[in-house]
Amino acid sequence: MVLFRTVAASLSLVVTVARLLTQPAQEPSRADTLSFAVIAGAYILTVVTGLRLRRGTAGRLDATVTVVGDVLIATGLVYLSGGADSPLTFLYSLAVIGAAVVLDWRGALVAAAVSTFAFTMLLLITRLTTPVDAVAVPAARVLFVLGSNALALVLIAVLSGYLSRQLSATGGALSQSEADLRRLGRLQQLILSSMPSGLVTCDAERRITFLNTAGSGILHADPGTCVGQPVDTLLPGVASLAPRSTRGELRVRTPGGNRVLGLSVSPLEGEAGALLIVFQDLTELRRMEEDLKRTDRLASLGALSAQLAHEIRNPLAAMRGSAQLLAQEQSRDVVVTKLTGILTREADRLARLVEDFLRFARPPEPQRRPVALDALLSETVDMLRADPLAREVQMEVRTPEALTAPVDPDQLRQVLINLLRNGFQAAGPQGTVRVALARAEKEAQIRVWDSAGSITEEMMGHLFEPFFTTRSGGTGLGLSTAHSIIHAHGGSIRVTSSPADGTEFLVGLPL
């Protein structure tokens, strides 16, 4: 309404100025001066109302003053443009419509009554102040004009009031619908951002249109850069799954490492060819399953190995005793002496192998006590610096904080020696081996890293199995024994390897 009044006043000003410019040059008449005064009053009313609206202080009183001002402005313009014969009497109708908009139907009827009263008083004053011989409009016509205008204003008030009520009801319903829609939109965004599962949508051209928060966390991807990219760049191989694949697994490489995803693919309703992909990170679950299977295999193998080693150790002791008796006879036969030495030496080697096997099969119960892990790591590394395998290998130790855990120091030192010597052999000359200690949630983590990254995907599944080795002369019991010791401590041991990132053994020990 403020904008409408501004436009109307501006148009009136333009018409008045144009009329003065088209007339011969002369002083503005009294009517022209009053016209400018009425237009100035309209501008002042508009500015005051606009300022109060901007400050948020405008209320029903301001609306009433505005409607009364519109009636007075219309009365002034009608007076200046001919009174009863004025072509601007429609301005009263605009004032009534404005009242219906800002003051509902009751305000429209009151505005119609005020407008009728103002128009009547205008005609009455004009008639009383005009000499009798100068009156050009008959009384009957004046009454007709008054009656027709009054009737028209009442009808306009009723109609505009009805339309105002309908508009108000429709506007309220629309506002409620918009609020509900915004609330549903916020709820949808909250649900999508709170989902623990990843969610990806793509269009018919298999380009990503949406990636939720959980999905970006699982895949270590930025949703802003992923939108518009082919879905195969984010989930390689997903296009090969059926459009209605209820369940499948996919291995993907992410900046955070290789991940195993369990996902389902279904058509996205409402858009032909579009897909909805929901996936979960199964990496930890599959790792736990592999650990459980490995533990079961090692437990079964350990029981069999202990029985087999026990059966071997007794005959082996008898064989070694017999060999020693033969050696004590001081035979002059050189061949007999040589063979007796070989028999004794090989019996000793087999005895050590059986002991290692028994240690793997039945590791002693850890004798736990609080141990400073940072000191244990430093001592073990210093001890191994003289190892021939450590020559020309760069060794790093990172223990940023003192950390104490209940462990068996001798058994943990044995695990560290096995892991470090494997790292030395894998890294080789000019390679790097790094040991780091850190505190994680409810556990201490020891990381042994080497720069080689030579463990293949095929070797991963057999790495902790006994007798599995990749170097000549190895027994294949080092990592198996380490696994048994860490498992006896209630901890975990995991490994990751790639030529680009190297190999890392992660040992987790409960605090």
From TrEMBL:
Cleaved signal peptide residues = none
For this UniProt record, the keywords arranged alphabetically read as follows: ATP-binding, Kinase, Membrane, Nucleotide-binding, Phosphoprotein, Transferase, Transmembrane, Transmembrane helix, Two-component regulatory system
Domain Histidine kinase: where? 307-511
Q: What EC number(s) has UniProt assigned to this enzyme? A: 2.7.13.3
Report the InterPro entries cross-referenced here.
Answer: HATPase_C_sf, HATPase_dom, His_kinase_dom, HisK_dim/P_dom, HisK_dim/P_sf, PAS, PAS-like_dom_sf, PAS_4
Record-level Gene Ontology MF annotations = ATP binding; phosphorelay sensor kinase activity
UniProt enzyme class:
transferase
State the reactions this protein catalyses.
ATP + protein L-histidine = ADP + protein N-phospho-L-histidine
Q: Which Pfam families match?
A: 6TM_PilS, HATPase_c, HisKA, PAS_4
Q: What is this protein called?
A: histidine kinase
Q: Which organism is it from?
A: Corallococcus exercitus
Organism classification, top ranks? Bacteria, Pseudomonadati, Myxococcota, Myxococcia, Myxococcales
